[in-house]
Amino acid sequence: MLIGYARTSTLEQKSSIETQRESLRAIGCERVWEEQTSSIGPREALRGAVSFCREGDALVVTKLDRLARSVRHLGEIVEELEGKRVGLRILDLGLDTSNATGKLMLNVLGSVAQFEREMMLERQREGIAKAKALGKYKGRSPKAREKAAEIRELLAQGFNKRQIARQLRISERSVFRVLAERN
């Protein structure tokens, strides 16, 4: 049985998840798990897909970056799949780990993908540093600080910090920070 897994990082990538779903269904995936979470966030659908796999099945993803966040993470996933005698297919690479060549290529390509990500992050940090030096980068606007009066009002009304965070759609840490700044 072919089991599909699709992931996007943000809600704005709606067409991406649809494209992944269509590709997975087109090659014959009978079950497809989907989720919207960053690569470092909890991956409940991935856990579900891997748990569902049985001996002889194959887990299918459209791209390597949809599956793993690092070479180490990829290795952990592959090791778990191999322990269950489940294959892994990555469509855009034409990769299938059911043979030795596929396993080798997966490791090589996983390393290249991690290298590319690290280089992208390095370039991003360099760009931000340059923009800051030129006075063009201010960071994101402090949304929680703009809501400081609302935070204090809700606290006075008896709401706890978690409820305030949910209601104002900010993090609990931001609520704590705003309240600490007042003191």
Short description:
With 183 residues, this protein is of the alpha/beta class. The chain contains eight helices and five strands.
Count of structural domains: 2
Put simply, the count of helices is: 8
Strand content: 5-15%
Structural class: alpha/beta
- Helix % is 55-70%
| End-to-end distance | 60 Å
CATH superfamily of the largest domain: Resolvase, N-terminal catalytic domain
Number of strands: 5
What's the story with the biggest beta sheet? 5 strands, mixed
Q: Which runs of at least 5 residues are low in confidence (pLDDT < 50)?
A: none
Give an overview in words:
By secondary structure, the chain is α/β, with parallel strands linked by helices. It folds into 2 domains: 2-116, Rossmann fold, CATH 3.40.50.1390; 143-182. The protein has 8 helices and 5 strands, in the order βαβαβαββααααα. It has a 5-stranded mixed sheet, with helices on both faces. It is elongated and about 60 Å long.
Blueprint (SSEs and pairs):
Layout lengths: L1 E7 L5 H13 L4 E6 L7 H9 L5 E4 L9 H13 L3 E4 L4 E2 L3 H34 L9 H4 L1 H9 L4 H8 L3 H11 L1
Parallel strand pairs: 1-2, 1-3, 3-4
Antiparallel strand pairs: 4-5
Helix pairs in contact: 6-7, 7-8
List keywords for this structure.
single chain, 183 residues, alpha/beta, Rossmann fold, 2 domains, five-stranded mixed β-sheet, 8 helices
